[in-house]
Specification:
The protein has 18 helices and seven strands. By secondary structure, it is α+β, with helices and mostly antiparallel strands. The longest helix is centred in the middle third of the chain and has 15 residues.
């Protein structure tokens, strides 16, 4: 249903949705079972060699495209992939080492099937419920606008993910500072493929570099990836205090934001976008964004020139759930018409 009635526009992607192919329905009794590669796509349960396996019953609908979508950094993200069997593949550098996770919902049994490879496989499977939003409480959200109510009602599978990994969420957010999303995604791909490592498991994915590797990237390496000195310096400073930043995963929102913003180059925009993913905070509203206030103002009142102050005023009825409200507004797709060309895209690696 989501693929037919919820177009994957740029605003929907900004709202944290990614396209996940629908898994084939279960075969009725007596129906022939596909053989060979088709069997994996039809069942979604072929276990790879050396994988740890977990079956989890969430007791609710799981929409992988909405829940895990915010973790994807562009269509060519080397750490994230969707496959025709309805699976989502995600790599991470866990406290126990690199890992690859494959998640696939089973509609027949109302469970989620997960497999993981690598030294961090057990950690990834233990973190599966939090990753799929089990700690999130959407019942606390009460829509106050007709558009928000419609968006909320049409997306019952939306949950806020929690990775528990701060640096992994922080670095791609820093790359998105002051540039277009396409430029940031390109830099992310170049850096992860060059300085990361091949991920464990059957998919050709990559694991992000560890903190030391990020800190040791030379100046020309950042330049070749299209990253200017301001953003690269921020990432290096963050990598040098990575252990302290990871402690923010266990903090409440004000303390976690203060811990991140103690690093020069990390402000409210960067900390909010990071903690939305690493901590799953429903109230981590993004301020300082070029487009978000105008989108929210236009969607709720028709005001296309709203600023941060006006956006926070409009979101005040959703106190405690302002990030969820903003996501639902973005997913609704009601955006102001363009009055100027898109922001100019550049690549400093060419110079």
């Amino acid at each position: 249903m989501a693929g037919r009635f919820d177009p994957l526009t740029r605003t929907a992607v900004r709202g944290g949705r990614t396209a996940v192919p629908a898994a084939a329905p279960p075969q009725p009794d007596g129906a022939p079972t596909p053989a060979g590669p088709a069997a994996e796509h039809a069942t979604g349960h072929t276990t790879g060699a050396g994988a740890l396996v977990r079956e989890w019953a969430p007791g609710r609908e799981v929409d992988l495209g909405l829940t895990l979508g915010p973790l994807r950094r562009g269509p060519g993200d080397p750490t994230f992939r969707t496959t025709p069997d309805g699976s989502v593949w995600k790599t991470s550098r866990t406290p126990q080492g690199p890992a690859t996770l494959r998640v696939c919902p089973d509609r027949a049994t109302a469970t989620v099937h997960a497999e993981a490879w690598g030294p961090g496989a057990a950690w990834m499977l233990d973190a599966l419920p939090a990753l799929l939003g089990d700690a999130d409480d959407p019942a606390a959200f009460v829509p106050r606008h007709r558009l928000v109510h419609a968006s909320h009602r049409s997306r019952p599978g939306l949950r806020l993910t929690r990775t528990g990994l701060v640096l992994e969420s922080l670095i791609p957010v820093v790359l998105e500072q002051k540039v277009t999303a396409d430029e940031a995604y390109r830099s992310w791909r170049r850096l992860v493929r060059r300085y990361g490592e091949p991920a464990p498991g059957p998919q050709e994915l990559y694991v992000v570099p560890d903190a030391r590797a990020w800190a040791l990237i030379p100046s020309w390496g950042w330049h070749q990836a299209g990253v200017d000195m301001k953003r690269s310096s921020t990432i290096v400073r963050a990598a040098r205090v990575a252990a302290r930043l990871e402690e923010a995963a266990a903090m409440e929102l004000p303390q976690a934001a203060a811990r991140l913003e103690a690093v020069p180059g990390i402000g409210p925009w960067t900390s909010a976008e990071t903690l939305q993913r690493s901590n799953g905070y429903a109230d981590a509203v993004t301020t300082g964004d070029l487009h978000l206030p105008g989108i929210i103002g236009y969607a709720l009142t028709g005001e296309r020139d709203a600023d941060d102050e006006r956006m926070l005023e409009l979101l005040a009825p959703y106190a405690g759930q302002r990030h969820r409200a903003a996501r639902l507004i973005l997913l609704a797709g009601r955006i102001p018409p363009r009055r100027a060309p898109r922001m100019y895209r550049s690549d400093i690696a060419r110079f």
